[in-house]
């Protein structure tokens, strides 16, 4: 297989952004969960809530750090890998990115210091405020970047003059047709990722016999949050799908594996889409269900990929990423509701805690799969109908991209392994200090 | 006045201020990272505690500086970062290693700790060297050839020495006792390195770039510019004289002027920075592209300027607040 610079630039950018998104996905919702712990402590004066805060804030600090440094990489690669992007849509991307840095990055990074290390230096109220501002900052950051990404999917509010996009209406740019759906979907994804992380790691401690109240609080919070958010996410995902059907029909056709425009399209559970023959092999489906879900009519029409010849995304990757995302979602629904049912009756069964532990990072899988659907599904466009990915690519020689790509991949592999193992190690270590008073426990922790 | 004329100047100024803030702020914390291997195991915890609450926000200035380059001067962003592709990749590698080592070194298993300490120090050094090389390459207008690359490597070593000096100054200010005494010693050594490097870069820059030489060595500009090198020289002399005195007084238990080395170093950075800015302006890619040729359309710049005018003072305000919260000597950093 031969790599041209465009493919290499895409792989490199894809690798970096895939690695990066794992960490904001956790820190966005984790900030609010920490605020929840803080609020419970303020309301009840139950030290166990603060102990839970003390444990999770460490995971948060680690996550945030990896997110920051991998995000710096992104700010360089927008320009190095996609110079045509700024040249064509810089008038739109520039201000949105600048507002993200100005309104979000400084806020979260500055108050993080106070949130992590300032408890003995500021009043409890200011510390709660700092926690709030960090959570707020991560969410504002998500708002801007999702607005930009959604604009690339469904661009509105601009006109093209001499090959450059010029803004005609900023509100239409920011609140473009897919933005509310994508933002909701992503924030819920972040909430679910954190819910399963908190539940999974607490279940891990629970299963090891570490059953102090702080662990019970965390486990309950994670499980209930998951059970609450997953049905909301299914509704939001459905609405997002309808939005895609209206605005990006080629992406939707690839998600459903519909090659030829048809009425009463089946929902495919399995198929191997084949670009050469323009058909699916080994197709197993439920009759009419895709049409019913997407058009809310049994015989609703879904436009097939054939209508978008040469302008539709690679089908297999989108088709399968979508199925991975949905499968993880279904598994999340079953697990969360089962765990809630058990917690309401008393204690979780051993195999339930093992299942939850196994699903600690399941949110990552679903989030990545979902982003692959939406990003690969936008191809061959970088900005739908405005700029193709190939036209935006850089002229940096392929060899240089390849060597740095290998460096990044090696680094990310090490960091990901370290992150996951350190998070579990923190959980084991936290269990060993339970006989000590809280203050002694925390004083030993330097960072 | 014509917006196409003044907006690029304003944005070049904002970008310069962001990069200056970055060099000073992340400079001291990278410097502490470079010095880390010189401290004992216990001292290392204090060294890192002295920068722990700040480093995240310090690095954000780099994102803002590069972000402004990207959004305000997209043409220059493509050329500059394309030319600097490898040193940028190495810098990012350094920043990533260092940023994660901050947390991993205290959270990972004890046997892994030395490894993360090494990653922290090596990452800090790599980032500093790469940034210096980027500066050197930039100043020669990305000229090919061994001499130009030699100049870039010299600039790399010089910036690393300057960061070490900033870091030592920070430690003198933020610590006490044995560590403070050692930091004074580190500052004395870093001062020689920085002095040599600033001198060498000052001599080599006009030699490496006829373009820059032409801007400095004409009358009356030369006389007007003279305060920059003379001011730097005075600050170097001040540091060279005051550090031994500070060491004697510190040994006697008096560190009332502990802020002086850091402040003087910041002064040197300011003067050097404005010297460089004068050398480059109004080009953004030396000899190839002026800020007006590289700028985005006024409509986009205006939207960003409104935001920046409101938000930047707020950022400065809460940054000052955060520094006040952690004012004084660094204690062992704790989550409680």
From TrEMBL, chain A:
GO terms for cellular component: cytochrome complex; plasma membrane. It is a multi-pass membrane protein. It is found in: Cell inner membrane; Cell membrane. One of its GO terms (molecular function) is metal ion binding. Coiled coil: none annotated. One of its GO terms (biological process) is aerobic electron transport chain. InterPro entries: Cyt-d_ubiquinol_oxidase_su_1. The chain crosses the membrane at residues 20-41, 53-76, 96-117, 129-152, 186-206, 218-236, 320-343, 355-373, 405-427. It holds the Pfam family Cyt_bd_oxida_I. Keywords: Cell membrane, Electron transport, Heme, Iron, Membrane, Metal-binding, Transmembrane, Transmembrane helix, Transport. Belongs to the cytochrome ubiquinol oxidase subunit 1 family. This is Cytochrome d ubiquinol oxidase subunit I. It comes from Pseudogulbenkiania subflava DSM 22618.
Automatic annotation (TrEMBL), chain B:
InterPro entries: Cyt-d_oxidase_su2. It is a multi-pass membrane protein. GO terms for biological process: aerobic electron transport chain. It comes from the Bacteria. One of its GO terms (molecular function) is oxidoreductase activity, acting on diphenols and related substances as donors, oxygen as acceptor. One of its GO terms (cellular component) is plasma membrane. Coiled coil: none annotated. It holds the Pfam family Cyt_bd_oxida_II. Its main location: membrane. The chain crosses the membrane at residues 6-25, 86-104, 116-134, 146-171, 191-214, 226-247, 259-281, 301-323. Keywords: Cell membrane, Membrane, Transmembrane, Transmembrane helix. The keyword Transmembrane applies. The keyword Methyltransferase does not apply. It is found in: Cell membrane. Belongs to the cytochrome ubiquinol oxidase subunit 2 family. This is Cytochrome bd-I ubiquinol oxidase subunit 2 apoprotein. It comes from Pseudogulbenkiania subflava DSM 22618.
